[in-house]
Write the structure tokens for this entry.
Amino acid sequence: MYIAKTKEGKLRIYLMLTGISAVIPLIATILHNLFYGLAITFENLKQVFDILSATFFIISLIVAPIAFIVGVVGSLVILKREGE
């Protein structure tokens, strides 16, 4: 994995994390609904689709907002240190 050693590299990573985590809830919500519908339609694979549905639900409601907050706070900290 690439490790950023400069402030610009770290800032870029935090800004990318912020942007990606802002889009992920939309994608994860669509995938959650898709897998939920497939679980209802295909009874023989219901357990697999239920696990996938729950996974994307958790990503959408818990993981993405936490990643967004980390990205915003990290970006602000780096920008504040750069200004000093």
